[in-house]
Design brief:
- This protein has 250 residues and is of the alpha/beta class.
- It has one domain: Rossmann fold.
- Helix 2 crosses helix 3.
- The longest helix is centred in the middle third of the chain and has 15 residues.
- The relative contact order is 0.14.
- It holds the Pfam family Abhydrolase_6.
- This is Palmitoyl-protein thioesterase ABHD10, mitochondrial.
- It comes from Litorimonas cladophorae.
């Protein structure tokens, strides 16, 4: 069963946390930052939690506002809110350095969190990261009818791989437009490991590759995974993620 972190506006964030122990008890806490409409019970999140616990690494996975077992309606969420949720988890559940592991939308949220508080971020592992996806991937592919629907109805619905469709609210699109980071230097100085599926049809590798030019960090690696899709959840993919985390833990 998860624990719950109450926020200042009366909402709560569901999370599961295990503390570090043994030789790695003081290593940076690993925080899983999931993707859009995913939750902390997803395959990569639970696999990495079990993997970290077996090695004595502190690990936290949680549900954003409007996701999973946390409170709030998904349609009211924004990138600002979801990035702030990562900050709340970091600031209230940890005291030392952290490594943020961001998947898809969570990669963007993790980057925004690292920009806001660079000293606490010891490293970033970004899996098929989708910075600026609302404007550069979603709205960029909309028809004129969808753009009009956003203006008239305040929301556009699109199919998702979940029980409910994606609901792109006007607030999410406008907030995402204001929080874009790919068109300027990204002031993140910690080591960054990017894993990108070559066959990803949700976030094309040509999109995430732009991070290489924009990140100011001097320690950035970009791994293009042959045959990898958007989930990157094959056994070989999971090994790559584990290796990326370990490369930041020396």
């Amino acid at each position: 069963m998860p624990d719950f972190l109450k926020t200042s506006d009366g909402h709560y964030i569901a999370y599961e946390k295990t503390d570090g122990h043994g030789a790695l008890a003081d290593a940076p806490t690993l925080i899983w930052c999931g993707g859009l409409k995913s939750d902390m019970e997803g395959g990569k999140a639970t696999h990495l939690h079990t993997w970290a616990q077996a090695r004595g690494r502190a690990f936290i996975r949680f549900d954003y506002f409007g996701h999973g077992q946390s409170s709030g309606d998904f349609i009211d969420g924004t990138m600002t809110r979801w990035a702030a949720d990562i900050g709340r988890v970091r600031d209230r559940l940890t005291t030392g350095p952290v490594i943020l592991i961001g998947s898809s939308m969570g990669g963007w949220a993790a980057l925004l969190t690292a920009i806001a508080n660079t000293p606490r971020t010891a490293g970033l592992v970004l899996i098929n990261p989708a910075p600026d996806f609302t404007e550069k991937l979603t709205v960029a592919g909309w028809s004129e009818a969808q753009i009009k629907a956003l203006e008239n109805d305040g929301v556009v619905y699109e199919p998702s791989g979940y029980d409910e469709p994606y609901a792109y609210s006007k607030a999410l699109i406008e907030d995402g437009r204001a929080r874009q980071i790919l068109d300027m230097p990204i002031p993140v100085t910690c080591p960054v490991r990017i894993l990108q599926g070559y066959e990803d049809t949700v976030v094309p590798w040509t999109h995430s590759k732009r991070l290489i030019d924009m990140l100011t960090s001097k320690d950035v690696t970009y791994t293009l995974v042959a045959g990898g899709d958007h989930s990157l959840s094959r056994e070989s993919d999971l090994r790559l993620i584990e290796t990326a985390i370990e490369s930041l833990s020396v």
